[in-house]
Structures are given as C-alpha cells and as structure tokens.
C-alpha cells in the first residue's frame, strides 16, 4: 500500500521527553514529504503551539489542533474545520469543575483563558520565552469566566482540567462524561480534556482525508495516548509508540520504538521510505 498522509501526535510521539524533535525524526519526515506524502501534526495543543513545531520541521503541514476541534494548514489563514463550544456549554463545564481544586483552562486556537494566574512551569508560559513574537500563545486571565464565555461565544475549542489529585481528577472526568454532552478524553495521566460531542482526532483525520480526497487505507496515524486511540483505530495503519500504555498498543497495527528513541523516524523508514 502506498501511504499518502501521515498524522503525528506531538507530545510522547513526535517530541522527545525534553520537548525536542530529533534530527532523525526531522530527516525521515522531510524525506517522506519530499516524496509527496502529506505530514499532519495532530495534537491536543492549541494551533499556535503546533504551528511552531511544524515550522521547526520545515515543511508545509496541515495541523489538527485541540484534539480535532480545529484544522488548518500552518501557512494559510483558511480554516479547514472548526467545532467550538458555546457559552452555554462552557458554563455547563464550569458548573462541574468549580467543585474541584483543579487548574482549568479554556482554549481558543491561539489563546488560553484562566481564572487564576498561570503557575511557573506552565507549558505555554515557558514556551513563550523561546518562540518568536508572532508565535507566542496569548495567556489571558479573568476571574469572571462566565464573562469570558459570553465575550468568546463559539470561539472556545476545548477545556482542559489538570491535577495531581488523580482520584478527584477521575471523579470529575466521570461527572463531565455523565452529562453526555461532550467528548471527554485524557492526553496525559494528570489531565482530561473536554470538546464538543463527536470531536476526536479520529474524526478530524477523516475530515482531512476527505478534504484531500484520500481513503483511510492511505493513512498512517501515530500516537501514544488515550486521545490518540480514535485516529489509530481509524487509520489504514495505526501505529503506537513504544512508550504508549498497553491499552493503546493493543489497538494498533504496529508498535514502533519510543519517542526518545526515534520511534517516528523508524516507522516512517519502515513503511514509507
């Protein structure tokens, strides 16, 4: 089978644990791209963050951001797909999450919204120190989140809850899922993310495939987490990283090496190059 689209998760997949893209990964991606294979970044992160890493790869890359809620090519203003949360839906999420002592952030394609100041070490806060001005993530604080929801009605793409209190995190995740109004998934063990019902990386890969006129048999998807399962199962070739948990590996067609040992490059070399 000739593969024409490779969809890559970022954290735990394309990026090492140090949040770097290895030279071997860059070389393999560039070689596949030069052969006419489309490379898509597929992440839970906001578009502006994913755009920075796509820029590092030095290729034209469509980006699936916010776990599938937003699709756009990095070098064009045209949005391929967007699915947002209404002010009413955001308030429903707030009604549940306000009962827990979590960090809760609401994301647009380029802005993070919080009711409290961002803590030292927060991913986007640290990232902003190292990126050009036009690629910085906007970090907005407003104690009155309901005011933000009204102001940004149908702009917010997802909410994310973060906590080291895993028992409370699990309970809150279950509480949101019981509403049956949202798609709820974890990208890391210390969080869960909330999107519009029906939104997932897998559904977004299908949108992108239809946009480019590709069949699922022509697609490779690689990931390591719960939020990658939908695209791994959708793809003609679903690949789990060596660092993925067993429940992800069991759903994959193939397991490559870890994110710290060039697992992305090794899979591309094997199946594409």
UniProtKB/TrEMBL annotation:
GO cellular component, one term: cytosol
Coiled coil ranges: none
Keyword terms, alphabetized: Hydrolase
InterPro entries recorded: Cof, HAD-like_sf, HAD-SF_hydro_IIB, HAD_sf
Source domain of life: Bacteria
Molecular function (Gene Ontology), one example: phosphatase activity
Record carries keyword Hydrolase: yes
Any Pfam family the entry gives: Hydrolase_3
The name this protein goes by in its record: Cof-type HAD-IIB family hydrolase
Organism annotation: Clostridium bovifaecis
């Amino acid at each position: 089978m000739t593969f024409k689209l490779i969809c890559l998760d970022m954290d735990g997949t394309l990026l090492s644990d140090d949040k770097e893209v290895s030279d071997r990964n860059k070389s393999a991606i560039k070689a596949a791209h030069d052969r006419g294979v489309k490379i898509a970044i597929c992440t839970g992160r906001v578009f502006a963050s994913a755009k920075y890493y796509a820029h590092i790869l030095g290729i034209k890359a469509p980006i699936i951001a916010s776990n599938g809620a937003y699709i756009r090519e990095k070098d064009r203003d045209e949005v391929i797909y967007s699915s947002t949360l209404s002010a009413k839906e955001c308030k429903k999420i707030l009604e549940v999450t306000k009962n827990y002592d979590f960090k809760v952030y609401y994301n647009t394609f380029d802005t993070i919204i919080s009711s409290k100041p961002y803590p030292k070490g927060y991913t986007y806060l640290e990232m902003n120190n190292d990126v050009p001005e036009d690629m910085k993530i906007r970090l907005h604080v407003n104690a009155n989140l309901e005011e933000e929801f009204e102001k940004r009605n149908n702009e917010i793409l997802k909410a994310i809850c973060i906590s080291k209190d895993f028992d409370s995190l699990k309970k809150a995740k279950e509480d949101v899922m019981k509403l049956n109004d949202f798609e709820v998934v974890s990208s890391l063990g210390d969080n869960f993310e909330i999107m519009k019902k029906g939104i997932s990386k897998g559904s977004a890969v299908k949108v992108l495939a239809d946009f480019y006129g590709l069949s699922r048999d022509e697609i490779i998807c690689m990931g390591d987490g719960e939020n990658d399962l939908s695209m791994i199962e959708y793809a003609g070739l679903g690949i789990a990283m060596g660092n993925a948990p067993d429940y992800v590996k069991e759903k994959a067609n193939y397991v490559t090496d870890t994110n710290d040992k060039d697992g992305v490059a090794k899979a591309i070399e094997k199946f594409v190059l």
